[in-house]
Amino acid sequence: MKKVKGKSLLIVALIFTLNMIIFAQQPKTQYSKLKIKNAWVRPAAKGANSALYFVLQNNGSKPDTLIGAESKLADIVEVHESYKRDNDRMGMRPAGKLVINLKSELEFKPGGIHVMLLDLQKDFKIGDLFEAVLQFKYAGKIKVKAEVRDTPMTKEIKQ
Amino acid sequence: MKSKKQFPYFDHENISTLEFILDKIFMKRQHLLIIIILFWGCKDKFPVIEELGGTQYNLVNQNNQNVVFPDFVKNKIVVINYIFTNCPDICPLSTNNMRLIQEGIKKENIKNVQFVSLSFDPKFDTPDVLKKFTGIRNLDLSNWAFLTGEKSVTDSIIKKIGVLAVPNDSTIFKNGRKIFYYVHTDRIQLIDADGKIRKNYKGSTINVNEIVADIKSLQ
Predict the structure, then answer these.
(1) Rounded mean pLDDT of B2-24?
(2) What are the pLDDT digits (tens) for B95-109?
(3) Are the beta carbons of B92 and A42 separated by less than 8 Å?
(4) What is the ipTM metric for this complex?
(5) Which residue has the higher pLDDT, B29 or B74?
(6) What is the mean pLDDT of the segment spanning B83-88?
(7) Which residues between 110 and 129 in chain A have a beta carbon less than 8 angstroms from any beta carbon of chain B?
(8) Which of A13, A64, A99, A122 is deepest in the core (most CB within 10 A)?
(9) A82–B contact, CB cutoff 8 A
(10) What are the chain A neighbours of B120 within 8 Å (beta carbons)?
């Protein structure tokens, strides 16, 4: 009888552990449908600033939120947006947390929302590759590979 | 008794000789009116916004050479934008549009055009910084100068030409270096060969074909 009880406990523990593993992996599966495409970065010299642009697609089952960005290739990485003040005056401000709704796209583009890259650690010339990591509320960290260009990206880079 | 009107049908006694000649030439006065309207229309397309003739500003280019603006571009059509190199988004966009305009005039084989990019953050934008800014972008400097100078001088220029640039936020890096971000006018300007500013465009969203056509018209 004791042997049966011990076996039952073992099975329950196994089921519990499996559930935990499945539960832990579930968000990753659900939110892995965030897609980053057409990523590009403007050329800039070491110590100078640049910006990262891309299109963010949410094909998952829930909205997600971009909460930050980082890169080993820049001292400071922040999500900003350029905005029109008055007449033709332009300013820049932190974009805050950006929600990417279901089945929608969010475009990071020149003159709009962009990932600001400050104090680049090396020269980035046209044709070079830049790497950054975007941090999402649910999907976690997603790597971005971007080509250095002077005009918007039209082809996709394998991320 | 009414006299029979002669061709062209107008009263010779009540119009001047000049009108008579013009009517002869254009047959109908309406035609003349249309031509006058078209003439004035073209003139109004490029009204003089500001005159730079008579003013002289001592500046330095990306090669650390002294230049006197606008003397060094005398008798040339000038396309000018206003930048600070720490600007991560708008100024690179405007500068890239300058590059596209430069390519546009090359394709159209338009000569006698000079490009100028003036920094309104000269304390940071030294000639060396400007040189790196141009080099990394592989810009064609054969007819394009990047200018900097004393802050009082660059401030005088942007005040004269109607550009505003006000330091706003700043960032301090891990190494203690501090940089400023400006709220600034996003502008490219067209200056004619007599040093008169003739048209303003929004630098980051300029229609390249439009300014190339305008440069052609000013030639």
Answers:
(1) 51
(2) 999 999 999 999 999
(3) yes
(4) 0.72
(5) B74
(6) 93
(7) 110-111, 114, 116-119, 123-126
(8) A64
(9) yes
(10) none
| Percent over 90 (pLDDT), chain B | 70
Residue written as token pair 């690179």: B92
How many of the other CB atoms lie within 10 Å of CB of B218?
Answer: 18
* Residue A81, helix vs strand vs coil: strand
Q: How far is A124 from chain B (nearest CA, A)?
A: 7
Tell me if A94 sits within 8 A of A118, measured CB to CB: no
Task: Please name the amino acid found at residue B2.
Answer: K
A30-148 CATH, one of 3.30.2130.10, 2.40.128.120, 2.60.40.1890, 3.40.50.1100: 2.60.40.1890
Burial A7-30 (b: 16+ CB within 10 A, else e): eeeeeeeeeeeeeeeeeeeebeee
Output the pLDDT for position B144. Answer: 98
Categorize the per-residue pLDDT at B23 as very low, low, confident or very high, splitting at 50, 70 and 90: low
What does the pLDDT look like over A22-72, one tens digit per residue?
444 444 444 458 999 999 999 999 999 999 999 999 998 899 999 999 999
